[in-house]
Amino acid sequence: MKWTNDRSDNVDDRRGTGGGGGFLVGGGLGTLIIAAIVFFLGGDPSAILSSGIGSSPPTEQRDLTADELKVRDFVSMVTAETEQTWGKIFQENGMQYSAPKVVMFESVTQSGCGTAQAAMGPFYCPADQTVYMDMSFFKELEQRFGAKVTEFSIAYVMAHEIGHHVQTLLGTTGKVDELRASGKYSEAEMNRVSVATELQADFYAGVWARQTDNREHILEPGDIESAISAAEAVGDDNIQRRSQGYVNQEGFTHGSSAQRKEWFMKGYNTGDIRQGDTFNALLR
């Protein structure tokens, strides 16, 4: 992935500042499965974020390493490109884009949706319109789930989470929350709604990739393949096979590996936000 000269002021780097006192999820494959599920969580994740096993001790303050500072620079660059691309898309459709905050943290931090933990991976909190990123998750994604992690696959993850922010701005998140709160729909029906929500965020990530590349020529050979690898790694069928040894489609909440690839590529190939109605495509 080619870097641009753009940087965002909306990145809050909390690494190296101490912390702790929150909850700590226990280790092992079970935690990693949970992490992968929450990785692309839509809606309000407070119920999961506020749960945990034990509490974490305070961590000492420290200076960030040169590599960590480079990661911050990268996240700031990607954040700036999401701001420019979505600002342009919203303007072209007669709307105004309000950019989310991006928080980088390690181990544990507080979010508007509850206690954020490293084991849960990146997520978007609609309550404070903020994306929370613990970069250590990508090592687990590569080592335990077989994803090919590159700079662009990290950018894709950020673009997916900001896709959830786009859903919040467009009112999609609120409508899904209303459906869930009504109690009129079964768990299986709400699971299908959840799948549609997550696949639309994948679609928006693809739209972002296409339009940003058109403007800044950021893509290099293998970048799109690495994004697809990350998406497929956390497909419901892949997670279920690793966690329980078989696939139960009624339990899908995020979409299969094939669906995640399909909708990301549809967004990338069309570059058109209007082509991403996953709800009618999946729920009719």
Describe the structure using short key phrases.
8% strand, alpha/beta, single chain, 11 helices
Q: How would you summarize this macromolecular structure in one to three sentences?
A:
By secondary structure, the protein is an alpha/beta fold. Helix content is 54%, strand content 8%. α7 (187-216) packs parallel to α10 (257-270).
Q: Average pLDDT value?
A: 84
How many strands, what sense, and barrel or not for the largest sheet?
4 strands, mixed
Order of helices and strands: EHHHEEEEEHHHHHHHH
Distance between the termini: 38 Å
Strand coverage percent: 5-15%
Radius of gyration: 18 Å
Helix- and strand-based class? alpha/beta
Query: How many DSSP helices?
Result: 11
- Main sheet: which strands, in order across? 1-2-6-5
Protein name: Metalloprotease
Keywords: Hydrolase, Membrane, Metalloprotease, Protease, Transmembrane, Transmembrane helix
InterPro entries: Uncharacterised_pept_Zn_put
Pfam family, one: Zn_peptidase
